Amino acid sequence: MRILGLDVGDxxxxxxxxxxxxxxxxxxxxxxxxSLKEDLKxxxxxxxxxxxxxxxxxLPRDLSGKIGTRAQSVMDLADKIRESINIPVNLWDERFSxxxxxxxxxMADVRHKKRKxxxxxxxxxxxxxxxxxxxxxx
Length: 138
Known about the structure:
Layout: E1 2-8, E2 12-18, E3 25-32, H1 36-49, E4 52-59, H2 69-85, E5 89-93, H3 97-107, H4 112-136
Parallel strand pairs: 1-4, 4-5
Antiparallel strand pairs: 1-2, 2-3
Helix pairs in contact: 1-2, 3-4
């Protein structure tokens, strides 16, 4: 069993994947969005290729915890993925995942210019790792 993690943006989606034991999230790739049809096709390909049983998508709530426009568009995409791929799709609070990714890059002394291509992948990895950690404590 594996779980796929997604950090959804307007133009790019960071993609991460759990190990088979569901203990560690690993960055997989940065996907540049094309169209809904192409996006769903890519997710299906990844799910099939890596034998994914569940998807976790970061939900970008407002700082107050409310659902804004961006969060609503992520929820709509989650619904489309559920219909298209027919595996469980869960939403996970990702309010601080990008900040956390920046903090990790700061600690590693990676310059802003060099980290840019990896930020979304790192954010998806942080989202998925948080989900995996929460699952393991149940």
